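STRUCTURE:
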């Protein structure tokens, strides 16, 4: 039986439907350069830290060779475009903020997001979740981003909770691998635009289709391991 003391949420794709925007921004950036950013390219960056996804973009689009553009230049360009998208409309995932507040009514809650600090802090301010989360870790705060477990271990250290006593909520393959490596319970909550492969869903304790399905009863079921419908 797992004693749950904390719930840790991812941000992109879990709290906000931002993965579509990340894909759109990268596609537009590539198109402006006469290049193509495809589905496999986007999937490779999901859940990654800024350093990691910027490196992936430079490599996949051969930006250094073609344009002399490095990771810092790519990151600045993409983050700027994302900031503009958020300012125009912040796409909160239905039920996500309510899920965080519900979890906080019984457990410690934290955020572990691969997003750049600038964007993550903006989202927390706008949603008011900066007043709810007891600890946060962002992609710029860790040397090794997801799928490495570091970001989860570090935020749990802030909370004073052991990994085996925590559950994480993730939408991406890299995020789920990170939770698995950290030794935490796993709720898979992929958005409809980015379904997870069966082998990744198999790593989770349970899958939910919408954040409105998140409940305290679900966490209790994960704690006991009883009555769970495997994804």
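SEQUENCE:
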């Amino acid at each position: 039986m797992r004693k749950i003391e904390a719930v840790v949420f991812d941000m992109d794709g879990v709290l906000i439907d931002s993965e579509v925007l990340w894909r759109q921004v990268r596609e537009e950036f590539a198109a402006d350069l006469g290049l193509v950013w495809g589905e496999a390219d986007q999937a490779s960056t999901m859940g990654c830290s800024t350093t990691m996804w910027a490196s992936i973009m430079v490599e996949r689009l051969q930006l250094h060779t073609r344009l002399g553009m490095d990771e810092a230049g790519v990151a600045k360009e993409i983050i700027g475009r994302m900031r503009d998208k958020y300012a125009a409309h912040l796409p909160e995932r239905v039920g996500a903020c309510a899920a965080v507040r519900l979890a906080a009514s019984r457990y410690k809650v934290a955020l572990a997001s691969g997003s750049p600090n600038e964007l993550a802090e903006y989202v927390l301010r706008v949603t008011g979740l900066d007043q709810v989360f007891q600890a946060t870790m962002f992609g710029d705060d860790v040397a090794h981003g997801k799928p490495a477990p570091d970001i989860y271990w570090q935020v749990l250290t802030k909370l004073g909770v052991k990994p085996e006593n925590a559950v994480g909520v993730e939408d991406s393959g890299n995020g789920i691998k990170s939770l698995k490596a950290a030794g935490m319970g796993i709720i898979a909550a992929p958005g409809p635009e980015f379904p997870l492969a069966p082998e990744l869903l198999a790593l989770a304790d349970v899958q939910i289709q919408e954040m409105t399905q998140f409940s305290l009863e679900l966490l209790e079921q994960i704690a006991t391991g009883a009555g769970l419908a495997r994804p």
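REMARK: The longest strand covers residues 108-113.
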